[in-house]
Amino acid sequence: MADVTSNMTGTVWKILVNPGDKVALDQDVIILESMKMEMMVPSTEEGTVKEIKVKIDDFVQEGQVLLTLE
Length: 70
Hints:
This protein is mainly β. The chain has a single domain (2-69), classed as CATH 2.40.50.100. The chain has strands at residues 2-5, 10-15, 22-23, 28-34, 37-42, 47-52, 59-60, 65-69. The strands form 2 sheets. It has a 4-stranded antiparallel β-sheet, with no helix packed on it. The chain starts with a strand and ends with a strand.
């Protein structure tokens, strides 16, 4: 099991996957917005999305767990 974490402080703008989706290494899974810039958050491993721990418009800190893969 692996956690995908935020690479910056910002707001969750878009979630690109759903629980049960298979993702590849480096596949974009979430888009964060900060200071009118969009930053893609890639998957750190290959796997299946087990749980999404944030929702759209949530404010997240750098290093915060966004989703879990199995």
